[in-house]
Structures are given as structure tokens and as C-alpha cells.
Fold this protein.
Amino acid sequence: MRYYGDPILRERARDVTVFDARLRELAADMVETMEHENGVGLAAPQIGESVQLLVALRLADPDDETTDVVVLVNPEILSRSQDTWVHEEGCLSIPGVRGNVTRPSNITVRYRDLDGNEHVVEAENMFARILQHEIDHLNGKLFIDYLSPAAKVLIKPRLKRLASRSGDE
Ligand SMILES: [Zn+2]
């Protein structure tokens, strides 16, 4: 796992152009890591691969216990709803930090599957939130970027510790 302070988490990941066995293997590794870490989503840069690939659970709401996993390659948000909702988020790359993030309730996403076929998915509520969090990762953005100035002050010491640890590795 790559942690806050690792520059790979701030890069825009490169598009996938080859849909081969290696990509499949990477996706399988990511699903395994996500499940092992009890996460609801994971983006490739979080395990050190700067490519446009994410895995996520298709959760209808925060209490949903589905294990239905989706894999999105080269995802792109086509539209976002005007209405938004606030919910607490965390991130496997920023352990010990949580915070309220406002996001659009519904989004439409175009992506490719592991065979390179194009799809469009409409996501709402928790699933839309997870996809937005993970797509942000592919663009070098983290959920803490959305926190209020006051919340940012509170998490600053924790972020500093994480960043110095990640520099040691
Ligand atoms: Zn994250």
C-alpha cells in the first residue's frame, strides 16, 4: 500500500491501452488487497501502479454488505447531479483520518472493462461516492482535499506523521 506523502498518489495515472493478462492480474491483485484491507474501493496508484484502473464494491448504501465487485478501466465521469450529500470518508492510503465530504449524489461514468469493451454506468448514492473517490485517485486527488479549513487543521499533525513515514520507505 502506498500512503499519503508518496508522490504517486498525486500523479494523474496513465490510460490503459493494452488489455492483456497482466492487466487482469493487476485487477485481481487489487481486489484481493481491497478485501484484505476491508476497503470498499481501491485505485491502482494506491498499490504503486500509475494506471487508470480501479476496483470497487457496488454498495447501494453505507450499510450494504454486498460483495459485488466492479472493475473500471479508463473511467471518465460524463455527468454529475446538481444535488449533493455529505458523508464521512476514509482512505486506505490515509489511515487514521476520516472526514465529511460533499459529493454529487448521482454520476454517469464511461469506462472500459478488462477486455477493452466500453460501458456507461449510472451510479447513485454510496456507489456513486465510491466511484468518485477512486476516480479522484486516478487524477491525483484525495478526499482530504475537500475538507473544510478547520478539519484540515485538525488532521495536519496526522498527515505530517504519515508523510514522514512514507518518505522513509
Ligand atoms: Zn482512497
Summary: The helical segments are 21-36, 125-138, 149-168. The pocket of zinc ion is lined by residues 91-93, 133, 137 (CB under 6 Å).
